[in-house]
Amino acid sequence: DKCVECKWDRGMCMAVGGGSSSNLMQMYFYSGMDVVILFQEWSVSTKAGYAAALLLTTLFTFCVSLLREFAEFTTRSKLPLVLRSLLTFLGLGCAYLAMFIVMTYNVGLYFAVIIGFTAGWTVNEYYRLKHIHKTEVQPF
């Protein structure tokens, strides 16, 4: 076995030595702005790009949370099974994409995912309590 060294590039270890070169995923949280999100083409290295990635990730997970709650709501409705299955498929697929974003181990992206999911759940719960059960929800 040959020893492998890392050359760091955009938050990822590029293995050098040992007769081959490959990408090794880091397994710890970091707080840098150099990050590849989901696809090699979506890599950010500037403050503006990172801020946009945080905002888009938060909005994405907010929408995913609402979609999953809506899909769960439709299971109790009379929508066709095919439509309910499609909503479930989309909701789960997007939730797994959010999981992959968390797996970048970037602290900012991690919190963007958590904040988006929490905000989506909160909006849905507020709506459900206020409109479906006809009860008034008092803010804090």
The ordered string of helix (H) and strand (E) elements is EEEEEHHH
Number of helical segments? Answer: 3
For the sheet with most strands, the description reads:
3 strands, antiparallel
- Beta-strand content: 5-15%
Total number of strands: 5
Percent helix, as a range, is 40-55%
Span of the ends, CA to CA: 60 Å
Largest sheet: spatial strand order: 1-2-3
Average pLDDT rating: 80
| Rg from Cα | 20 Å
Briefly note the structural class of the backbone. alpha+beta
Low-confidence stretches: none
Overall outline: elongated
For this structure, the quaternary state is single chain
Descriptive overview:
Helices cover 54% and strands 12% of the residues. The chain has 140 residues and is α+β, with helices and mostly antiparallel strands. The chain has a 3-stranded antiparallel sheet with strand order 1-2-3, with no helix packed on it. Strands 4-5 form a two-stranded antiparallel sheet. 16% of the residues are buried.
